[in-house]
Amino acid sequence: MDFATVLSRVVTALDAQEVHYALIGGMAMAMHGLQRTxxxxxxxxxxxxxxxxDQILRSHGYHREFHSENVxxxxxxxxxxxxxxxLHAFRGPTxxxxxxxxxxxxxxxxxxxxxxxxxxxxxxxxxxxxxPSRHGRDWAxxxxxxxxxxxxxxxxxWELLADYLALFDLGDKLPELTHIYxxxx
Length: 185
Known about the structure:
Blueprint: H1 3-16, E1 21-24, H2 25-31, E2 40-46, H3 50-59, E3 62-67, E4 71-76, E5 83-89, H4 92-100, E6 102-105, E7 111-114, H5 117-130, H6 135-151, H7 158-167, H8 174-181
Parallel strand pairs: 2-5
Antiparallel strand pairs: 1-2, 3-4, 4-5, 6-7
């Protein structure tokens, strides 16, 4: 996948149609200064904007290979286009993620809306609970994000993280995360 070209084109097209979206996943981690290998682009998208996003992606050479209430997966007809996954935002937590997203600069000057580190962690918590086979990798990503925030003196919204952990019955993990960050609550 040609990430530089694809991200710029998709973001420009989504912005032109005033679609409400934000980058999530491995590329969002990279935008926050963390290195992580990724093979696709992942976005969270307001469910009401799905039809517009579908039209945009199809016009850019993608076809939808899967669709459910919660997600849509698109695959490029050309391998250079790669895969784009959309998480549909229509519940409180995901709508909050869109509201909290901030635009970060992409090397070509494009400003890309990216979810916060806390929201990335919340998505990782959900992923490891939904698919236990991902637990090791997703928990390692969570720890990496917390370490990065601590090392870079990036403030963390511990209340939001506590809410995500409690939502998935993992509230007992908060002390471990605050310890890694270097903070005691």
